[in-house]
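Hi there, hope your week has been kind to you so far. It would help a lot if you went through both lines with me. No rush at all, and the record is pasted right below:

***
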Amino acid sequence: MFNKRVLNWYLKNKRDLPWRTSKNPYYIWLSEIILQQTKITQGLPYFLKFKEAFPTVSDLANADEGSILKLWQGLGYYSRARNLHYSAKYIINDLDGKFPDSYNSLLKLKGVGDYTASAIASICYNEATAVVDGNVYRVLARYFGIHTPINTTNGIKEFKKLAQKLIDSSNPGTYNQAIMDFGAIQCKPQNPLCNSCPLNDSCIALQTTSIKDLPVKEKKIKVKKRHFNYLVITNENNETILEKRKGKGIWEGLYQFPLIETLKETHETELIEHDFFKSRFNKNASIKLFNSQQIIHKLSHQHLYTRFWLIHTSEIKEEFISWNNIWEYPVPTLIHNFLENYLKDKV
């Protein structure tokens, strides 16, 4: 009954999305990776841009990382883009260009977990593997009245087992898309459309007035506060410095201005006495604060309290670039927004 009602609802209400016009596993994979942690309204333009720039997995594999990160700019969670590139090269070089065609083989792609492998396997290869994403968790938790936290090991196992039990094995791809759309459109996080819901006569959450309480999530990880001081350098030749972020932290592979990270809010006198600052600039360098109020850039588990310091110097000791070429570099949204504000008065 449950899956039939959801499927019937989907046939009348499904969203018109470009990746649904094809069963090409590359396009389905691309759409699923882009839509991780991302709303469809935000991810759709990126899918179209990537599909145009890299129409085949071979095109993606042969692209340089910088061009991929630049196209991804603004979408966040940049490890997704690097994993796409890595997996595309794996498909071309190790699998002779043949896209993995089963749930288990799809899991070998970097950045692909249970949900993405289930989506691709069911939609493209008709394999009866159930998807469990945020929308599915919400529908199942409310309908069946499940209070097990969805972000625990037990919760993940319980919901996957239930979803697998409910899947329509004769048409798994359509059913998976149906339950996800149902959660996104009908059983919404806020103000779900319970009055018109085809499941409202048997939904436990509706019967027990616990719609707002489900699904249950355990308390979030404590948010870390970091203090960033970017040094925005200019000289007489209209040059500046951008550095590529390295390591496994945020924004790996993207570019930024030289950064001094401090334990607390830092003022000019403290900044110019910092060893990093003194090692780069002579005493003739001028310094001016661009934003009097700290910009708070919020990421999932950390908030960046940011100041941009304008440094004018006659001497740059490192490799420099022209300000005219600044937009060629992939940068985090935080830097992109600064550049738009800073450069709008200089055009």
Observations:
- Residues 297 and 334 are 7 Å apart (CA to CA).
